[in-house]
Protein 1
Amino acid sequence: MTRFQSPFVRVCWYLSLAILAVPFVFPFLWMLSGAVKSQTEIFAPTLTLLPETWHWENYAEVFSYQPFARQYFNSLYIACVVTAGTLFISSLAGYALARIRFAGSGLLLLLLISALMMPEEVTIIPNFFLMKWLGLMNTHMPLILLPMFGSQGVMATFLMRQYFTALPPELEEAARMDGLSRFGIFWKVALPLSRPALAAVGIITFLFSWNLFLEPLVFLSDIELFTLPLALSNFTDAYGLPLWHLQMAATSLAVVPILVVYIAAQRQIVESFALSGVKG
Amino acid sequence: MADLTLTGVCKSFGKLEVIRNVDLQIEDGEFVVFVGPSGCGKSTLLRCISGLEDITGGTLTIGGERMNDVPAAKRGVAMVFQSYALYPHLRVRENMGFGLKVRKVAKPEIERRVDEAARTLKLDSLLDRFPRELSGGQRQRVAIGRAIVGNPEVFLFDEPLSNLDAELRVHMRAEISGLHKRLGNTMIYVTHDQIEAMTLADKIVVLRDGMVEQIGSPRDLYYRPVNTFVAQFIGSPKMNLFDASGLPANILDTARPAPRAARAGLRPEDIRVLPSADGPVTGRVVNNEYTGAGSLLHLDLEGLGQCLAIYSGGDAPDEGAHVSVEFDRSRLYWFDEQERNVAIG
Ligand SMILES: Nc1ncnc2c1ncn2[C@@H]1O[C@H](COP(=O)(O)OP(=O)(O)OP(=O)(O)O)[C@@H](O)[C@H]1O
Ligand SMILES: [Mg+2]
């Protein structure tokens, strides 16, 4: 259908799409512009997208106001560890739930899914005592362990299981005839074919870890240990009011890894969709 | 040597018995075809031989060695799947060499064997493509190539041609037959297409409900079916069956071998249809399927019921026409009350 559109129709389409995109893009642009404005100009009665004077020093101040580089690194390495760990665990567990017949596998799956229905606000207190008992307060371990083994990990496992279940079993049988062990089949056949699922789980998990706020708030007290969401809320003046220009500058820095992860993962997804299709 | 013996082989899934007490002897280099209606257990039996399913009773030996508990990859068999099951993320070359790589064969040797198989199957120019870039027939050839490179003693095919169009199917059938002659391996082939079975097989195994109905050469099954099931399953269009009591007295008197022969079978090609309605057996044409060389007539015969007849020639009687038929008495098959062939008894 799109192939036969006249240029006029096409221009109309793009125009309306562009208009519809404004509500989504505007806050982002506003953040970028606020990042290089002074606090007073942000609240000036006339709204401007481009600042009158460019305050690039906002960015420098972000780093001097608190150990922002350190906090940035904290967020980054925690998100990476959580993503890698979740991919590892969820793919193995998902494969087992999808392909290995063992007593009680159905019950186990049901149990896992029901864990998804528990909001984290409910589990945070028992988790708090658990972590305290383990002596992990004011360390990064809760931020790594809770997403990996909590609801996010379950979600990832469930997604991987669904994907593995849908893979053609004949491929794995062919691999078995070719002499691969169970793990070999998982590693050399099932996993390479699950790249779209891995990419999706990767993005979701990375985002989840990156945006985690409640857990750092509960478990961390050292400013050196803070992660970005906590650090962002920490750009305040003496009265506890937000320093908007610093918050926006810091936030604009905080979105960069998300964009990178998203673009990388999306390429994976597109590539592997081209690969799929056993026959036909 | 790769002769196979199955002795009392059984397979059940939970309570469901799918293969029941199958005895089968397959000689080295034989081309054996399993046929039977859908759901009769052909694939299951093949998978039991391949090792993808464990057998739950009896013994399986390949080359004289008991194979019941030997893992699939160590049985010296290779399987070609109906859906081809090519690894979508690997190129044709890697697909074919995959099994060898797993078995830690040296790189140059893999290369050599893949190239050789590719030449045999005319896949040379496709080696660097991905499966998705191949046509159905080419994928099929790659799947066969993947089986060949492992130098298996026994090839197993599960309806390998059923995803191809009619013309390509005939072509690939000839190629598989040629391959068998060239390689001389034992091949076991599952199909529900009895033409495929007849043309390819040295030996056909007819299965029904997980049991062997008859084993024999295509000729054997065609001319000496043990019962009505095999008689109707082999041959196309399928054999007509009549109650003996409805046949004209002169046929009963001269051709019936014994009084216990309660049913008579006659293949459609052995019935001659005459345009005039004044023979001993008369009837009406219900349907006329024109096939080019002739017609397949669906007849409703007086006292005998529905039957099929092949009419060669272009002037077949139209629908509704009253006709008479002549039976080729020497070609009649006789079955007793239990549907068994009286002549084999
Ligand atoms: N894994 C399984 N679990 C339970 N029952 C099964 C399983 N595999 C096959 N069956 C049953 O075994 C019977 C035989 O199946 P099989 O696939 O061997 O039939 P087939 O002769 O190959 O049929 P088709 O011509 O349709 O391929 C069927 O009734 C099927 O439902
Ligand atoms: Mg089958």
Protein 2
Amino acid sequence: MSSTQDRLRQLIAEHLDLGRDPDFDAKLGDSGVSSVDAVAFFKEVNQAFSLSLEPEDCLQFGTLRELVTYIDARAG
Amino acid sequence: MFHVDLTPHADREAYAFSLLDDEEKARWHRFPVPAPRRRFALCRAALRANLAERLACSNDRLSFGYGEYGKPHALVDGRRTPAGFNVSHCGRHGLIVFASNDRIGIDVAERNPRRDLDGIGSMVYGPTERRLLALAAGSRKVHLFFRLWSMKEALIKALGSGFSLNPSRFEVPAAMLEGARSSEFRFPHAPSNCWHLIDLGEHRFAAAFAYRIPDPDGA
Ligand SMILES: CC(C)(COP(=O)(O)OP(=O)(O)OC[C@H]1O[C@@H](n2cnc3c(N)ncnc32)[C@H](O)[C@@H]1OP(=O)(O)O)[C@@H](O)C(=O)NCCC(=O)NCCS
């Protein structure tokens, strides 16, 4: 498992009440996460990975796996 | 407009589930845990019951289509109807609003204290909104955060854009920042369209409702 995935898993545990271990391949829109939780989560992602994602940018990520790929591509 | 009680209740939830069509049942199954399943099923069933009555059709003739950013609209026998509605759910509260067109949006938010409201606000609030939030403290800060949240979300839901329109690109009307319960509003990117924004907040939750004021020519 990538370290990005580990770090995201940790942020999710701390900030998103998913109720279970996250499925990185499930559609984010099916997560049942509210918009306020989603925005709060992406704020944490910005801080943790030195990104500046805006709310509208977050719609591009269909799954958490796509977010991992995006973060790793920027780091690489 | 009406309120849907989203308190856990096995019988009501089972009945609500039975009113859903196959697509909705599949969506229900994809939610990983019970809370979003309950919110979705109870609100969607209440929406179906009301729309069936308004459109004078049986529940099984009713289905839903979705706009580019996910805003649902009603179909009868697969054909789009002009009936307008919008739904919001949070915790134990669902709100549904109906109108003769779909330029309406509603939002409800329970005021659960959470950390770093200023940080979250920096993602979605404009400069004046952020300044007011920074000046508030304690329960007043929580109250203001969710009041602003519900008003801005009602507007992006009325527009149908969801978060594809960054809510920090507009601010709620100055009169409402000063406490007014309703005001006219124009999005900076489309100032020719006028909207009406109403603060519906009460002791149980923050909530707001927005609708487009028809142009004089009826458009
Ligand atoms: C509508 C939106 C702006 C608000 O979501 P929210 O505040 O979490 O939820 P609300 O309860 O106020 O509203 C949800 C309802 O609005 C309606 N809706 C969905 N998209 C909409 C849109 N673009 N415009 C207007 N209404 C919309 C639906 O009826 C939905 O309820 P339903 O699916 O049970 O029928 C949503 O598009 C959004 O951005 N959600 C973010 C959640 C997300 O993407 N999570 C995954 C990332 S971790």
